[in-house]
Design a protein that fits this description.
687 residues; Immunoglobulin-like; Coagulation Factor XIII, Chain A, domain 2; 4 domains; 38 strands; globular
Length: 687
């Protein structure tokens, strides 16, 4: 053993700048694969020609699994394997440029050097990540602005609400903050795949397709004590309400602090946002996608069945459901297993909905394959295809006789306004056309039939050859709910039921109406209101019936998702039933952020947040939560005194920004009457 342990200069600043890793705050070298980095060390006894380097990762490194590399100094850097080139040397130190292959396993490496016949000496550790800036990498993304957004941007916008009324909220991904990288490496080492066979698992970590699938399983707690525990009950005791989170950092830190116990609670956007953080941190370009009127097809027949009773109540029958919205991820990488046309954006979904290969994981499914109906290609094509494209069947179910009657079917209901955040700006981009051909077009129906055929379904249900109970008759009347006035929590809800007689003779109609508070998954929680009316419509006549649901009637019943489903089941005398329904998402009142003065690095700046109580009663238990990467550490929580009816509160606090550039401040305000009023503000920090 040599007398002196070599000391290593990792050139942290220069290497980080070259490798797009400057945003990490780490004393350890973090570099990207397929690209050279420079280190300097002293204490090499032998001439540098005799130096041999050893880079190794994982529990039992070996050359066979590509988790161990030995390489000496050569005249040029290799693209194929690990290599080293001498930069400069003096009597006391050596500077070396080291390069890894484009398809190297990612993770934490141990680096040592051996000279002559002496034993290897450790130089320390470094972390190797995916490299979307390098053309040989599976995650290579040629557009620099997209790399900036999908790998380096720590702020995101997630779209929610419903297809008639899209809302959005900010999210702090925070992939470069504090200890997040170490937590992401720990997530990989806690997966079922690693526990069953650590050596094989680590050897597959060169492949974004493999890691995307493994991490889609690890972000949910099912099967593997993963990061977030899902809860769609509407009751969130013992944990945080899923709507109250504003960033991934708090969730990932809590998971680690608790000794890796699942964090309570998440719903789809929480799983998707946490997966975005983890994949961006590791260097895989990733974004969140929101699909409106998203189908959860539990039985794999590309169709969703919904059941209603005679009063128009939506019944919890069968495992299929349609959610107002659902959020998943797209990650960017090549599909060498499928061929070049299937490369690019891949769908991953960490929300535990259905098992795949025996555990709750979903994807990667090539977005191109989904659009073309090629549902047999890996992975989970049928489930993702149904999410954006299933047909809807609405049934009347008589619980006394068990008889079901088709009310109507709709092929254009599912998969609307598929949305993601724009590159480099805070706006919505519609990507529906990337998932399917235009609804109602011949091409779209052709692809739907192609997908059914590939799944062997063409005989079970084909709209062109329906079974007896599935014959759709033409209705005599049509109906719809119109919104009259604003949709705001704290205000009365005003609707119009519009009924039109389509026939040239008069029709008598009995209408049973209900309103239920629901979750965003349309799961019913509390009945708010019910009513019925009888009407005779003259030939071709249209009539409007005003409906008012007062704030006190719904206030106690509303869930934190602020969603209400209104249905009217119209029983036409001597005709078929007509179902009229509408899902309504209420808006929270507004909250306002002002930055008072210029935001400068390491200088205090005051921020003011204002909220006016819009209702005629006092609100209490008011809390303001603030977070934002590079603007403040962790989460600031401020208690606010109760507010009387119509009273305005103004709260001031100080920030000390730590880095220049456009940063986002996220605010969440909640009290006993309003859940999670969110907003965000872009703060331009100058040096």
């Amino acid at each position: 053993i040599a007398a002196t342990q070599p000391s290593t200069d990792w050139h942290l600043k220069e290497n980080a700048r070259e490798h797009h890793t400057s945003k990490f705050s780490s004393e350890e070298l973090i570099v990207r694969r397929g690209q050279a980095f420079t280190i300097t060390f002293n204490g090499a006894e032998q001439p540098e020609q005799n130096l041999i380097f050893i880079a190794e990762t994982g529990p039992k490194p070996s050359k066979a699994t590509k988790t161990l590399a030995t390489f000496d100094i050569s005249s040029t850097l290799s693209k194929e394997g690990w290599s080293a080139v001498l930069q400069s040397s003096s009597s006391s130190s050596v500077s070396i440029s080291i390069s890894s292959p484009h398809n190297a396993v990612i993770g934490r490496y141990r680096l040592s050097v051996q000279s002559g016949s002496s034993s290897p000496q450790s130089l320390g550790t470094f972390v190797l990540l995916f490299n979307p800036w390098s053309s040989g990498d599976d995650v290579f993304m040629p557009n620099a602005a997209e790399c900036e957004e999908y790998v380096l941007e720590e702020f995101g916008i997630i779209f929610a609400g419903n297809k008639n009324h899209i809302s959005s909220f900010g999210w702090n991904f925070g992939q470069f903050q504090g200890d997040i990288l170490n937590i992401c490496l720990a997530i990989m080492d806690r997966s079922l795949y690693y526990r069953q066979d650590p050596i094989t698992d680590v050897s597959h970590r060169h492949d974004p397709r493999y890691l995307g699938r493994v991490l889609s399983a690890m972000v949910n707690a099912n099967d593997d004590q993963g990061v977030v525990l899902g809860n769609w009950s509407g009751k969130y005791e013992g944990g945080k309400n899923p709507t109250s989170w504003t960033g991934s950092g708090e969730i990932l830190q809590s998971w680690k602090k608790s000794g890796f116990k699942p964090v309570k609670y998440g719903q789809c956007w929480v799983f998707a946002a946490v997966l975005t953080t983890v994949l961006r941190c590791l260097g895989i370009p990733t974004r969140t996608i929101t699909n409106f009127s998203s189908a959860h097809d539990a039985d794999g027949n590309l169709r969703v069945d919904e059941f209603y009773d005679a009063d128009g109540n939506h019944l919890e029958r069968g495992a299929d459901s349609v959610w107002n919205f659902h959020v998943w991820n797209e990650s960017w990488f090549t599909r060498n297993d499928l061929g070049p046309s299937y490369s690019g954006w891949q769908v991953l979904d960490a929300t535990p909905q259905e098992e795949s290969g025996g555990i709750y994981q979903c994807g990667p499914a090539s977005r191109h394959a989904i659009k073309e109906g090629e549902v047999e290609l890996d992975y989970d094509g049928p489930f993702v295809f149904a999410e954006v494209n299933a047909d809807c069947m609405y049934w009347n179910y008589d619980s006394a006789t068990g008889k079901k009657t088709l009310i109507f079917s709709k092929s254009t209901e599912i998969g609307a306004s598929i949305s993601t955040k724009a590159v480099g700006r805070d706006a919505r981009v519609d990507v529906t056309r990337d998932y399917k051909y235009e609804e109602g077009s011949a091409k779209e129906r052709e692809i739907f039939k192609k997908a059914r055929k590939k799944l062997g379904l063409e005989d079970k249900f084909d709209p062109t050859a329906p079974k007896q109970e599935e014959v759709e008759q033409k209705p005599d009347i049509s109906g719809k709910f119109k919104v009259a006035g604003s949709l705001e929590v704290g205000k009365d809800l005003n609707l119009l039921l519009v009924l039109e007689n389509l026939q040239s003779d008069a029709k008598t109609v009995n209408v049973n109406m209900t309103a239920w508070s629901t979750l965003y998954t349309r799961r019913r929680v509390n009945q708010i209101w019910k009513d019925s009316l009888s009407v005779t419509l003259a030939p071709k006549e249209e009539k409007q019936f005003p409906i008012k649901i007062k704030y006190p009637e719904y206030q106690q019943q509303l869930t934190t998702d602020k969603t209400i489903q209104v249905t009217a089941l119209c029983h036409v005398k001597d005709g078929i039933q007509v179902l009229v329904k509408r899902n309504i998402t209420l808006d929270n009142p507004a909250i306002d952020i002002q930055v008072l003065g210029e935001a400068k690095v390491n200088k205090e700046v005051v921020v003011e947040v204002a909220f006016t109580n819009p209702i005629n009663e006092e609100v209490k238990d008011c809390v303001l939560q603030v977070e934002g990467s590079d603007l403040l550490q962790g989460i600031l929580e401020l208690r606010i005194p109760p507010l009387k009816a119509s009273e305005k509160s103004s709260t001031k606090f100080k920030l000390i920004p730590s880095e220049a550039g456009p940063k986002h401040l996220l605010v969440n305000f909640f009290c006993d009457k309003f859940a999670d009023i969110k907003t965000f503000k872009m703060v331009n920090v100058i040096n």
